[in-house]
Design brief:
- The complex is a heterodimer of chains A (about 210) and B (about 260).
- Chain A is elongated and about 55 Å long.
- With about 210 residues, chain A is an all-alpha fold.
- In chain A, helix 7 runs antiparallel to helix 8.
- In chain A, about 70% of the residues lie in helices and about 0% in strands.
- Chain A folds into 2 domains: about 90 residues, Leucine-rich Repeat Variant (Alpha Horseshoe), CATH 1.25.10; about 120 residues, Leucine-rich Repeat Variant.
- Chain B folds into 3 domains: about 100 residues, Leucine-rich Repeat Variant, CATH 1.25.10; about 80 residues, Leucine-rich Repeat Variant, CATH 1.25.10; about 70 residues, Leucine-rich Repeat Variant.
- The two termini of chain B are about 30 Å apart.
- In chain B, helix 15 runs antiparallel to helix 16.
- The longest helix of chain B is centred in the N-terminal third of the chain and has 17 residues.
- With about 260 residues, chain B is an all-alpha fold.
- The chains are: A mainly alpha (about 210), B mainly alpha (about 260).
- At the A-B interface, helix 4, helix 8, helix 10 and helix 12 of A face helix 15 and helix 16 of B.
Chain lengths: ~210, ~260
């Protein structure tokens, strides 16, 4: 039955021409909560229509971590229009398998909003403190690098990330020190953007109390 | 891509043959907030192309970038040249000059800007046949008055008629400036209404306007607005930089 429902919904999507129709059809596909819908939703991400892509992104996030391999494979097939949205989905799913892609997006993507999502992912990836020390260090190094980004919002996200990661007790002291010095620098006048300074001061305050 | 040194950029602006190198150099100096003592004089020098007849279109492009850069660098020594450009017969030049004078908070700009806006929506705000432009760059002019921040009855009287302009983005600009100047919540309410406008472009404009005013009470409306997260973050930055407490920063964290 589910396959039939999905097929019907996909057909409706194929027939849709206007943005409201596309959004409606995409919402219907999302509502099925069918992992088999992932490839279709990923295809929708490449339509270059932000309203439709935002709907599909939410749908993909709700499908959960089972779709991570499908997401990663879709990038190999050169679906570049969808890349930004896929980074967002991977960051939201917090699945450690997304680490390579998030690291790559942070250094290589020209869109600040994609680098911001990648940083959010590095801050939030679910990593087992006792087993995934190497991955944890990669996340922290990515965050430290993001603190030097040209765009204020990427630096802001990096501060958020450092605050989260520096509370982990498994983190080696050398890394904690690097993170703290970076936050101190971003809280000072060396940082041009006031909101980044404010956020860095807040992070330092919380880390001292915590 | 090769990174340029500041000296190289200044040389690129100094030479006259390659206008695309000048164009990039003018943009770069503003973006990087150059503190070099040659930056302002060189940027001002490019403006002279706007006074030649006919204006060379490439040099006009360089000059427009220079006007924007001068607005970012906020050096008072550029004030006289920018004020003169408010009288230009080139719409875009008047528009960019107004924006830069606004960001420099130059009180000398108040009178000429009010003169350009005089006559209200039937004159300055009249739609031009066959183009999307109005007679005057009303949004830029009105927003500059709000940024400069000098509140007087004359300024309010100049802006007030534009709250009834048929174009929602002009109304938003008027409400934004009146909110900045008076701190009166009535104008915030108007902007919040525009935040629910069916046109995404209007919602985006109203959102950025609310952010620019630093009106912290707008936080819940900004959080729920149907606008993409990247723009909400820009608007919330405006709020966060004017407010105490962590509510705005927490909202920003949620949007990352």
């Amino acid at each position: 039955m589910t396959i039939n429902d999905l097929q019907t919904a996909v057909l409706q999507l194929d027939r849709a021409t206007s943005t409201p129709e596309l959004v409606r059809a995409t919402k219907k596909i999302c509502a099925l909560m069918d992992p088999n819908a992932a490839p279709t939703l990923i295809k929708v991400l490449g339509y270059n229509n932000p309203a439709v892509a935002a709907t599909a992104t939410q749908g993909l996030i709700k499908l959960g971590r089972n779709i991570v391999p499908t997401l990663l494979n879709s990038l190999d097939t050169g679906n570049y229009g969808a890349r930004a949205w896929i980074v967002k989905v991977l960051a939201a799913l917090r699945d450690p398998r997304g680490l390579d892609l998030l690291e790559h997006a942070l250094i290589a993507d020209i869109a600040p909003s994609v680098r911001r999502s990648a940083v959010r992912g590095l801050a939030d990836l679910d990593l087992d403190e006792s087993k995934a020390l190497k991955e944890l260090a990669r996340c922290c190094n990515g965050l430290l690098q993001a603190c030097r980004d040209d765009e204020w919002i990427v630096r802001y996200a990096a501060v958020y990330g450092l605050e989260r990661r520096l509370t982990l007790s498994a983190l080696p002291p050398s890394m904690k020190n690097k993170g703290r010095s970076m936050l101190i620098e971003l809280a000072s006048e060396q940082e041009d953007v006031k909101v980044v300074r404010l956020r860095a001061s807040l992070a330092l305050q919380r880390l001292c109390v915590g | 891509m090769k990174a340029f040194s500041e000296e190289q950029i200044l040389d690129n602006l100094r030479q006259q043959d390659d206008t695309s190198a000048q164009y990039y150099a003018a943009w770069w100096l503003g973006k990087m907030r150059s503190q070099h003592r040659d930056a302002i004089p060189l940027l001002i020098h490019t403006l002279s192309a706007l006074h030649k007849q006919p204006v060379d279109p490439d040099r006009r492009g360089v000059a427009l970038n220079s006007i924007r850069a001068l607005g970012l660098l906020r050096d008072a020594s550029a004030s006289g040249d920018l004020l003169q450009l408010l009288q230009s017969d080139d719409y875009s030049v008047r528009e960019e000059a107004a924006r830069s004078l606004g960001s420099m908070k130059d009180p000398g700009a108040i009178k000429p800007i009010c003169q350009l806006l005089s006559g209200g929506i039937d004159k300055a705000g009249r739609e031009q046949k066959g183009t999307a432009l109005l007679s005057e760059p009303c949004e830029a002019l009105i927003e500059a008055l709000g940024e400069i921040g000098d509140d007087s009855a004359m300024i309010q009287d100049t802006i007030l008629p534009f709250c009834k302009h048929p174009r929602p983005l002009v109304r938003a600009a008027a409400c934004r400036s009146l909110l900045q100047l008076t701190g009166c919540s009535q104008w915030a309410e108007e902007l919040k209404t525009l935040l629910e406008h069916p046109e995404p472009l209007v919602r985006r404009g109203a959102l950025l306007d609310l952010g620019a005013t630093g009106w912290t009470a707008a936080l819940p409306a900004i959080k729920t607005a149907a606008v993409e997260a990247s723009l909400k973050l820009v608007a919330l930055r405006g709020l966060a930089e004017c407010s105490d407490g962590t509510a705005v920063l927490d909202a920003m964290d949620d949007l990352l």
